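Throughout our pipeline, every protein is held as a single compact record rather than as scattered files. The remainder of this section carries one protein's record, kept here as part of the documentation.

===
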Amino acid sequence: MREPISVVGGAVLDSLDRPTRLLVARRTAPPQFAGMWEFPGGKVEPNETAEAALRRELGEELGIGVRLGAELTSPRQSGWPLNERASMRVWFAEVTDGEPRPLEDHDELAWISIRESEEALSLPWIPADLPIVRALLAELGATATADSLPAN
């Protein structure tokens, strides 16, 4: 049996204290996910903590430094299931250095409202990220219920 894959994602907010917007990234690859939106982040390397991996990934992918906040509660200790082998842990984060740019793996970034969940849920998300988006909106108190909109 192969080792499980640990992935980290950043729910980058305009403010950890009074969030109103979430930064999302549109993938360019692999082909099955190109054009879909996700939380920026990536794999945790051997001997790297999840938090250090997230800071590294956000620096590589977006050119930013961040302050990490709380981890979004997930259904498993290993994080949100992505596929048979991989799971992702997601942290709230706030930009402390740099201006987010799509440097690697993405062709577009967007700041979306977290107060109105329709905007966030109308994007074509990578399917495994959609339950995370719904949980994030619920935790941040979006006005529409995530269950009132169709899944994509």
Confidence is low (pLDDT under 50) at residues 144-152. The beta strands are 5-13, 21-27, 37-38, 41-43, 65-71, 80-81, 86-97, 106-113. The CA atoms of residues 89 and 117 lie 21 Å apart. The longest strand covers residues 86-97.
